[in-house]
């Protein structure tokens, strides 16, 4: 007998196991057919919210070689009705409100990740329209989710989330996701300026990269998928992602989930906050930039930051070694990582194979010959690889050690060349990019854990 189309392909327990086991992005199909949230089109939301205002971010539709961070954007507070009339091309102030100052042909706009619990605080019944319990997360609904509404071309700068993973339901329109694995972090040129807790940004514009400055990006392994209404994308922890709307109006619902007890990430974030605040609040000629993301409430004092760090370290030792008097030597590879949401360590036996097929689609890296259809940077990347291979061959064939120096604009030159070298003056942000590089922060976290747990052992003895 044929299976009813209303039956979900995975039970809540099966979906939870799959999500916890996935190490790469994947798309769930046919899991949300009966979710009322699929009716949350921008028009429907406009009728529900009426005159309630939300904050929209606007950016220019122009091709550059640098990401457009929130610190460089314009913001307006408007109703969804005004937003929709603006997307239709209307320009009268009484119809579009604050959007009247921005030409639709020149700007994109979106309301980014608004907490549904706040947007619908006066309509709590709408929380039940989102049913993450079907993925095994009992009790998780709209109160634990965010809302994204945007226009064609609206995009989120490439970044990774320090904590947890994401489940994203596409409701209206399509959004294109470009994802990169954690192992390629160095090729994404990470930065913590602008600073936002739990977000590490890339200095690369992934749509139009400057491969003279960021040549290693040409080797980054891009996984690309266009998410359709009703589909759910799983974004694993620490995967880089760039998100772009490809339809006139797009709506999606996102839920951030901390599958693993990620105490190390909290320690790293505490160190990052302390270092960034200390450096960027110090009087300096090159500290005049807008370094604090608008999502942050303000600058915290050094005392507050150190309290935050000590709390993170205490939480780590209490969670991992609640009653141990003699703590072993710790390293990143020896720390327990895979845990249930309850905190219980999961068994280390090999998990059963994932049921990839018609209802669970892995997001893979396109084959080289097909990447021209999905990635604008293919030709530039190929040229960069050829140039790199040529340079490597030249250096190896020279039979001698040739030092490479960085010149103005990030271009390379070899010592002893005829052209005069231009030495670059490093800025505070350059220093922070090196100090707060993920590889450096991993090692700092290890050393802090060892120091904290060692001091705790001495105190107990």
Automatic annotation (TrEMBL):
Entry-linked SUPFAM superfamilies: Clavaminate synthase-like
Domain annotation JmjC: ranges: 108-272
Coiled coil residues, start to end: none
Primary localization: cytoplasm
Record key words, sorted: Cytoplasm
Subcellular location: Cytoplasm
GO cellular component: cytoplasm
Protein's job: May play a role in cellular stress response.
Name of the protein this chain belongs to: Hspb associated protein 1
Lineage: Eukaryota, Metazoa, Chordata, Craniata, Vertebrata
């Amino acid at each position: 007998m044929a299976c009813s189309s209303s039956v979900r392909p995975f039970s809540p327990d099966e979906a939870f196991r799959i999500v916890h086991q996935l190490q790469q992005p994947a798309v769930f199909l046919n899991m949300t057919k009966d979710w009322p949230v699929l009716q949350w089109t921008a028009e429907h939301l406009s009728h529900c919210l009426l005159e309630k205002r939300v904050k929209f971010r606007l950016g220019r539709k122009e091709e550059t070689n640098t990401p457009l961070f929130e610190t460089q954007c314009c913001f307006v507070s408007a109703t969804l009705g005004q937003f929709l009339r603006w997307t239709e091309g209307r320009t009268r102030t009484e119809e579009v409100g604050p959007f009247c100052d921005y030409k639709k042909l020149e700007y994109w706009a979106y309301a980014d990740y608004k907490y549904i619990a706040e947007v619908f605080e006066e309509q709590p019944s709408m929380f039940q329209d989102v049913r993450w319990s079907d993925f095994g997360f009992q009790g998780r609904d709209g109160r634990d989710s965010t809302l994204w509404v945007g226009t064609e071309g609206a995009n989120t700068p490439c970044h990774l989330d320090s904590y947890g993973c994401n489940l994203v339901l596409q409701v209206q329109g399509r959004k294109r996701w470009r994802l990169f694995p954690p192992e390629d972090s160095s090729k994404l040129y990470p930065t913590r300026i602008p600073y936002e807790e739990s977000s590490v940004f890339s200095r690369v514009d992934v749509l139009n990269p400057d491969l003279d400055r960021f040549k290693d990006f040409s080797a980054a392994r891009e996984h690309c998928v266009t998410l359709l209404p009703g589909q759910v994308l799983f974004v694993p922890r620490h995967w880089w992602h760039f998100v772009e709307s490809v339809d006139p109006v797009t709506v999606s619902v996102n839920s951030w989930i901390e599958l693993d007890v990620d105490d190390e990430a909290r320690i790293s974030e505490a160190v990052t906050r302390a270092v960034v605040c200390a450096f960027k609040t110090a009087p300096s000629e090159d500290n005049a930039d807008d370094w604090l993301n608008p999502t942050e409430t303000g600058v915290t004092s050094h005392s507050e930051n150190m309290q935050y760090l000590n709390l993170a370290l205490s939480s780590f030792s209490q969670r991992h070694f609640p009653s141990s008097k003699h703590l072993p030597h710790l390293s990143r590879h020896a720390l327990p990582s895979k845990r249930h949401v309850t905190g219980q360590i999961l068994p280390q036996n090999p998990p059963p194979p994932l049921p990839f097929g018609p209802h669970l689609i892995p997001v893979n890296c396109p084959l080289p010959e097909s990447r021209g259809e999905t990635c604008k940077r293919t030709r530039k990347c190929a040229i960069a690889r050829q140039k790199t291979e040529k340079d490597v061959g030249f250096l190896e064939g020279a039979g001698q050690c040739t030092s490479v120096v960085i010149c103005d604009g990030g271009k390379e030159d070899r010592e002893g060349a005829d052209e005069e070298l231009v030495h670059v003056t490093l800025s505070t942000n350059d220093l922070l990019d090196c100090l707060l590089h993920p590889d450096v922060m991993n090692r700092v976290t290890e050393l802090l854990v060892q120091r904290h747990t060692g001091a705790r052992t001495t105190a107990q003895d």
